[in-house]
Amino acid sequence: MLRPTIEPIGLAGLVIAAAVACASKYLLVWRGRHIFNPAAVGATVVTIVATVLPLDAGIGSSAWWVGSPILLVPVLVLGIIVAWRTEKLAVVSLFLLVALVVTTIRVGVQYQQAGLELSLGDAAWQMLSASPFVFLATFMLTEPLTTAPRRWQQLVVAGVVGLAAGWPIPVGYLTLGQERALLIGNLVAFILCVRGSLRLSLTDRGWLTPTIQELVFTVDDRLRFEAGQYLELEVPHPHPDSRGTRRPFSIVSAPEDLPTLRIAYRDGAQPRSSFKTALADVERGGLLHATGVWGDFLLPADARRPILLLAGGIGITPFISQLRHLAASGQTRDIVLVYVVSDPAIAFRDEIAATGIATVVFAQQAPDELPAGWTLAPSARIDGESLLAAVPDLSSRDAYVSGPPRLIADLTPSLRGARTLTTDAFAGY
User: For residue 132, is the peptide bond before it cis, meaning its omega torsion is within 30 degrees of 0?
Assistant: First the structure.
């Protein structure tokens, strides 16, 4: 956001921005959860300081130098990857659409008032290539700690930020553009769903299979979630790797099980990440924090709609929460589960069997034993053809897919034939 410099006064501005950003993580918080994007706070404070100092002071202000035609391609490519991995493509697209339309209208009005001609196409391209909109959308708006928990809330925030960034409003010497627009969006997200850090006390841990471990917590009474959602667990530890101290985990237990909460994760790979190592060291009775609950991986409200659940490996976890919720609430639904496994030991096998839902297993290695009524697919590898053979009425079902991104990408073309398609990607820990 701030222009690089080697001038002493400019470096002082960078130091101020960094200090303010760090301080905001502790001062601008609600129940342990920071409200605003720290980088945007730091840049805004430096910009305000720059406006009250003499023009020749040289402390600088936010410049968003990353918004240039030269950097457009790498920023766009990397940004699309980030948006795809975080499942925020719709949020990013809406922001860009609103920001570009509003900006083009604003520039058109200004040109008309000046009696000048303007090509709207050229104006839109100029705003896209020479503004920070792409970087703001893909790297700043998708920042998880200030993101609203539900998809519709995220879209509302994207529209608000796009409007504020596209038509900056002057307030004294400042305009409400770029990072100030992002701060407005952060505030809207906070208002939509006030949330804070949640405490979890580890009460038990155990192995569901040789490679899948389950953790059991007791949580405080402020936690509320819907079956299929996930929480972000924070495990502070020294010398974290590049992925940091937080990871998302689908909740395995049903909402009716509160204050008991369960998560499960794959823990067979070696070497472990620093996060998994730290999580393994947490003893019973140890306190951890969750930064919030997110997700729209929810079953249809209409119980009459047939459903396909397709799980790859540890991607079974949100489905277990949903099946437990259906059992606890006495609901009966038309569900087919397609379970893709790589180990002979199948996690949650007995519990799934007890529900009585139709289950088809795709296995790289022959399972130890399948419950009565389950079907072992003739092919170890699942693809569009074998999926349709396993679920011939796919077109009448709402499809839910949870698992590795590669599995989701491979099957998405075939699943387009389903009534609806909802995905939940597990990128690993």
Answer: no
